[in-house]
Write a structure and sequence with these properties.
Blueprint (H helix, E strand, L loop, with lengths): L2 H10 L8 E8 L4 E12 L4 E12 L4 E12 H11 L5 E2 L2 E2 L1
Antiparallel strand pairs: 1-2, 2-3, 3-4, 5-6
Length: about 100
């Protein structure tokens, strides 16, 4: 399935409005899911944009194609900075072994 089709299906189903959210990155995963990152066109600023991450399952039957949202998270750039600095564990890795 083409990435544009996935984005249009999410818009048609009312999951993510393309009038409000601009897709900036799409990653297709080998397990039939997609990660889509959007930027809000109406809220936020260039300095501190508001993002939406959508994790969805792409279901392709013989006659029909459907996209089902599994997870969604809305965040600002400062939220991501906070997560990476304070929440994500700081682990030391030696030759593939986490300590």
């Amino acid at each position: 399935m083409d990435v544009r089709e996935i984005l249009n299906l999410l818009d048609e189903k009312g999951e993510v409005s393309l009038g409000t959210w601009k897709p900036i990155s799409v990653k297709k995963n080998p397990d039939g899911t997609v990660d889509v990152l959007y930027r809000n066109l109406k809220v936020g600023s260039e300095e501190d944009p508001v993002f939406l991450w959508v994790y969805a399952n792409v279901v392709e039957d013989e006659d029909e194609v459907d996209v089902r949202v599994l997870e969604r998270i809305t965040f600002q750039k400062k939220d991501f900075t906070w997560l990476s600095r304070y929440v994500l564990p700081k682990e030391k890795v030696y030759k593939g072994v986490v300590e």
